Structure formats: structure tokens, C-alpha cells
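Example pasted here:
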Amino acid sequence: MAAYENVSSPVTSEPNRKITRAGIPARSWLTVILCSMYGIFYLDRVNISQSASFIQKDFNLTNTELGLIFSAFSWSYLAGQFSGGWLAYRFGARRVLFFCALIVGIGTISSGLVGGILTLFAARLAVGIGEGPAFPSATHAMRTWYPIRLFGWIQGITHSFARLGGAIAPPLVAALILIDGWRLSFYACGLLSLSWALVWVFYYKNNPFDHRLLTKAEAAELETPKAKSRGKTPWLALARRIWPATLVEFCYGWTLWVFSSWLPLYFMNQHHQDVKRSALFSGLLIAGGMIGDTVGGLVTDRLLVSTGKRRLARCGVMFAGMLGGGLFMLPTLFTHDLYWVVPLLALSFFCVELVVAPMWAVCMDVTPQYAGIATSMMTLGFGLSGIISPIVFGWLIDRTGNWNVPFITAVAILFFGAALVWLIRPDVQLDTRETKSGTLTQ
């Protein structure tokens, strides 16, 4: 049985006794709200990449300095990732995600008010502080509100909307830049986050059985809520189980940061495209990833239902995604023809994003109660890659003048990640008896 935090109604053996409503499921509205958050937050995260050429010119930045600005988000994001799952477990996803959205909105608006590299770095740190705890906290909310048959689907569809935010960012930001400069894009994106915070805090309940829109059908699929364990959190046991996923997440994140940070400049410098066409091509590539997120979630759930083999359903999809991402990226190193480069990179990103849903579902599989904390541990790899990848990418370009060199590095890391996938064991749940006494035993 899963344990749910901060439940306001008493624990009973008949949690469905007051659930009599039929109609549009409460979970459907929650899915829309969660998808909106992922899209808005990702828009706030990557809008800087489309504005990069203008910021670089205004502040006279080298590529290495620009890479440092890109990485600023990840320094604070890394710290937030580690704390996000625990914060949601301790205080509830409702409160944590509300404050996350407030901080992201304020940080994004501040990014448009900066006057130089130091203030821009600080503003991007603020955005990372807000976004860091958000996705682990959202995973904690999902584990409470969704049945196991939908784990892959909900992770896939929400991350798909994250990529939708990334796909919208290039043309949207380019349009706003043409209207009134690059600063306007940060103001607009920040206001979206602030608006979402209000919607979330008014709709979401930490305990789904407290929600007035919950239907009988939904209630029947959910586990009985239990009081939060008073025992110690099994940090060491969780770390032992999650570290392979952390390594794979690092490899995945390295490539994602290449796509989300450098694509507009790649098309402008490597293929000599103007800002409009670079925005179009970047959006098309990110759209390929958006489709990959959804497909990865559907496929991993379908495999789980049809075979009953959780390791095959999760690891098999991740392996295919990492391997395919590298194989499709490789030919782009040998051609300058955009009729080949764009579809190949789109297919590469599609494959890379197949990894996301099964990867995040692994944390929900391994530990029902501590899914958010497990996710925080896994995404430490993503946070580290976000710090290292943009700086290394910019440094390699400054040193070599060749935009293919960082992509060669990404291919090698994807292949390495594919080999690491099989160290992950989603088919074996966390046994908290391995930890010290006082910890809740499953």
C-alpha cells in the first residue's frame, strides 16, 4: 500500500464511502493542469536559448560565457531536484508546487530586467530554484492520484507538454523579440507561471478522496490512503536502487541540454540561417521530442500490460531510445543539407525522448511511498548534466570552431547510456527492511 501525506480526512478502511459523483473525472482536469505546468515551466526554461544571440550581442559574451549563463539554471535546479521529493512528502505537493510556480514566475520576469551577466546569472538561478523541486513533486502527486496502469502514460503526456513548451518557445520568443525586443519574452512567460500557481492551489488536493469532483470509478482504482510514516526515510536503500537510473539520466540530460540550449545558435552558425528559420527548425526538432514522450509512455504501459515484465517494459524502451538517438544523430555530422539534417535530428530527439516516461515510471515502480524522493535522486543526474553540458559545448566550440565536435560527444554519451540501462531493476520493489530499525517496512 502507498502512503499519502498530509491527508485531511481521517484514515478509514472505506475511503470511497462518500464518493457518489459521476461525470467528468477529476483526474482528467488534473492531467490538463499538470500538462500545463510542464509546458509553461519548460517554456520558461528554454526561452533564453532563442534570445541567446541578442543577449550575447547586448552583453558582449563569448560562447563559453553564454554556456555559463545556460548552466546557471542547473546549479540551483540540481539542489531543488534533490529536495523536491522530500518537500512534497513532508509538506504536500499542493503547497510545494504553488511556491515553485511563484518563484519561477518571479525569476523569469527578472530575467527580462537584468543589466548584465551577473544579474542574468542570478535571475536564471532563481528560475532553477523554482523548477528544481517541481517535477519530483509532480511525480509524488501522480503516485497519489493515478493507478499503476497509467504510470507511463501520465509521465509521458506531461513530459510531452514540456517539449511542447520547448517547441512553442522558438517561434513565440522570436515573434515577441520582433515586437519589442528579447526582454518582452521573459515578461510574458513569467506571467504564465504566476497564473498557473493560482489555478493549482485552488484545484489540487493532496488526498484525492477529499476532492469534490472525484468519481466512483476513479476512487475504485486508487489505494486506500494511509497516514504518512513516522519512521526514518530510507535514504541509503533508495540510493542503492536508484543510482543506475541517475547515471542514465545524466546521459539523457546531456543530450537534452544540447537540444534545448544550442539549437537556434547551431542553425544560425553551422547552417547560416536567420532568426526566423532557426526558430522554425528548432521548433520542428523539439516537436519530434514531444511525440517521443507520448509514444514512450504508451509503449511502456502497453508492454507492461501485455507481457507483465516490468523490466522489459521500462528498460527495453529506454535502451531503444538511447541507441536510436545516437544512431540518427550520427549521420548529421557528415552533411550540411538541411533536408537531411532536420529530419534526422528530429528522429534523434524523438528517440531520446522515448526514455523519459519509462525512466520516471521506474521511480514509481520501485517505491510507492517514496516515489518523489526516488525521482529527486534520479534527476540529480539530469541536474549535473545541465551544469556540465552547456559549458563543455560552448568551450568545445570556442576551442575548435567546429559545431560537430559537441554532437560527436553527445553520440558517444548516448551509446554509453544505452549500455547502462540494463543495470536498472524496476521489477524489484524497494525493501525498506534493509534500512535501520524504525523505518516503515513494506
